[in-house]
Design brief:
Blueprint (H helix, E strand, L loop, with lengths): L2 H20 L3 E5 L2 H11 L5 E4 L3 H5 L2 H5 L5 E2 L8 H6 L6 E4 L3 E3 L4 E5 L3 H7 L4 E7 L3 E2 L2 H19 L5 H5 L14 E5 L8 E6 L6
Length: 209
């Protein structure tokens, strides 16, 4: 990565972390994927029950692979025979892993969901939530974050899942009511009432969508 971009991301991450702290959330900066993985594992004690939504960033830093061993009870929705039971297990898990569709410079998280298992677990249930967030997700404000979620993350995810939505065909949001829409629930996390519950690891890399 260009040295100037690296420095800019490091400085911007510190601004985001201060914003998160003001909102009763914890923020961390990782210089690369390896540092992000190390930070995440330091937050998760061995023996913990862990589950996740569909965050690609969690896979990209190698966290899912690292948790799939006898030291942790990792509930993998993708491999579960009863996917509904696996999703419901998230609400009583020690840790829920996720990425975010966008985050503002002052620490507000914006997420859109179709089935809503991800946004509901972020809002309530799991004892702790860990976000893995590439610096490509940082936006100026909530309006910019919402635009990113709807016009970048949603179309790519709709295409990834093979859904028949206008955004999958055109690459931009039509504010549709398609039966396949994944923009069913919008969650803006501006403050955490429970100190120590939400942890955000900012990674100096482009991760996810």
């Amino acid at each position: 990565m260009n040295e100037n971009i690296f420095k800019r991301n490091e400085l911007l991450a510190q601004k985001v972390i201060k914003g998160l702290q003001s909102r009763n959330m914890s923020g961390y900066y990782a210089a690369d994927k390896e540092a992000a993985l190390k930070q995440a594992l330091e937050l998760i004690p061995k023996g913990s029950t862990i589950t996740m939504g569909g965050g690609m960033s969690v896979h990209e830093i190698g966290l899912v692979k690292a948790l799939k061993n006898t030291h942790y009870n990792f509930i993998d929705r993708d491999e579960a025979t009863d996917k509904r039971a696996a999703m419901l297990a998230a609400y009583d898990a020690d840790f829920f892993l996720a990425s975010t569709n966008a985050i503002t410079e002052d620490g507000v998280l914006v997420n859109i969901d179709g089935n809503s298992n991800r946004v509901s677990a972020i809002a309530q249930g799991p004892k702790k939530v860990i976000f893995i967030v590439g610096m490509n997700k940082v936006c100026d404000d909530v309006d910019g974050a919402m635009k990113r979620a709807r016009n970048v993350a949603a179309p790519i995810n709709a295409q990834r899942f093979g859904l028949s939505t206008p955004c999958a065909k055109t690459g931009s949001c039509f504010n549709c009511k398609s039966p396949d829409t994944i923009c069913c629930q919008f969650l803006i996390t501006r403050f955490s009432r429970h100190e120590g519950r939400i942890h955000v690891i900012l990674v100096n890399d482009d991760l996810g969508f």
